[in-house]
């Protein structure tokens, strides 16, 4: 199942930083794994392979957005020159 919004495409210009953070930061890796799990679930719901209420779907999308923002902040911080 292809993801809707994989981090590598969402932040294409930061692919190397994302890989490095996944290798070096347990916190980043956990957030990224949760982001991808939610993205996968939303994709399944939208393609009618899984059932969820509108409220559940909206809550998942809001959490995915919050995670994306948190991940982007970490990516930006790690990408800044020292």
Task: Write up this protein.
The structure is a single chain. The chain is mainly alpha-helical. The protein has one domain. The chain is built from four helices and no strands. It has helices at about 5-10, 15-25, 25-45, 55-80. The N and C termini lie far apart (about 40 Å).
- Structural class label: mainly alpha
Mean of all residue-level pLDDT scores: 93
Bulk shape:
elongated
What share of the residues lie within helices? over 70%
Count of domains: 1
pLDDT < 50 runs, ≥5 residues: none
Counting DSSP E segments of at least 2 residues, the number of strands comes to 0
Report the radius of gyration as a whole number of Å. 14 Å
- The SSE order reads HHHH
Helical element count?
4
Give the N-to-C terminal Cα separation. Answer: 38 Å
Sheet-strand content, in percent, reads under 5%
Note the main sheet: none
């Amino acid at each position: 199942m292809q993801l809707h919004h994989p981090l590598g495409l969402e932040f294409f210009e930061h692919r190397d930083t994302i890989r490095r953070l996944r290798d070096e930061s347990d916190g980043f890796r956990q957030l990224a794994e949760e982001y991808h799990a939610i993205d996968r679930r939303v994709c399944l719901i939208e393609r009618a392979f899984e059932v969820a209420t509108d409220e559940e779907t909206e809550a998942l999308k809001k959490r995915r957005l919050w995670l994306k923002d948190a991940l982007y902040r970490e990516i930006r911080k790690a990408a800044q020159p020292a």
